[in-house]
């Protein structure tokens, strides 16, 4: 894209700047639009699971419901509690929403459709996702209210519990692919099993890692059955209790952008990303980004399916699963995977 703007007479620096801005908008704008539509899809899936209709009034088939909700919160007044820390209270939702968008900079939609194809893309994702919890903690602390504060404490413990396991799971993928670059990880999955299956998920040593990564993704994004930070039967609405108007909407958008990010990571790290499921030439006629979007939507369906059918965990169950099951098992598989790769001469 930089060369295109240079052909219009721009200097290299200006051409790079304009092309970068265009790249950001090409990711951010469709992402925000897809978040609005994915909320509609989420509600429709829940309704179908419960034999209800779901949104069906605003627009054809209810497609404009999310936009109507967005207009409603936009027109509402932003209320800041009198005892709140006003600065942190207003910064927290902005931080959550911004970090949710920043992580998408290194996600490969196709072999050459990526904003920043950096060698440490996976480390960048882990860094951004670990910062995301600060939005929740700041909101709970700044609200100066009992239930949001309880929610902030839960969020910090939940983040630590599952990010450790995610780190060990990611190490297994990095060991096998030999790179932190997400495009490189996708290419390492080409014909990975029997020379025809694209994806680490079909590898017997990495399949358990994918199952744990999927469950940890639910916990990391605070989705049911791990939505202890906003358990309405215990904490009213958790860290969002004191928020209204666009501040509340920013949390809502950030939450769904993070859910889509985790769906994209499941597809990229274990299911071949933008590669077709099988390494058959005719399947490559379908553009890579179509395969990628289909995989992301499949995982979003799984996320919604789980939320509609699985009851919420107790907090002690959440902690036990993270520390007593996922942590030792993921650490054991790091040893097994690295031992297997050493024994077979993979590192030679």
TrEMBL record:
It is found in: Cell membrane; Membrane. GO terms for molecular function: NADH dehydrogenase activity; oxidoreductase activity, acting on NAD(P)H, quinone or similar compound as acceptor; quinone binding. The chain crosses the membrane at residues 14-41, 88-109, 121-143, 164-186, 192-215, 256-276, 282-305, 325-343. Its EC number is 7.1.1.-. It catalyses: a quinone + NADH + 5 H(+)(in) = a quinol + NAD(+) + 4 H(+)(out). One of its GO terms (cellular component) is plasma membrane. GO terms for biological process: aerobic respiration. It comes from the Bacteria. Keywords: Cell membrane, Membrane, NAD, Oxidoreductase, Quinone, Translocase, Transmembrane, Transmembrane helix, Ubiquinone. It is a multi-pass membrane protein. NDH-1 is composed of 14 different subunits. Subunits NuoA, H, J, K, L, M, N constitute the membrane sector of the complex. Belongs to the complex I subunit 1 family. NDH-1 shuttles electrons from NADH, via FMN and iron-sulfur (Fe-S) centers, to quinones in the respiratory chain. The immediate electron acceptor for the enzyme in this species is believed to be ubiquinone. Couples the redox reaction to proton translocation (for every two electrons transferred, four hydrogen ions are translocated across the cytoplasmic membrane), and thus conserves the redox energy in a proton gradient. This subunit may bind ubiquinone. HAMAP family: NDH1_NuoH. This is NADH-quinone oxidoreductase subunit H. It comes from Novosphingobium barchaimii LL02. The gene is nuoH.
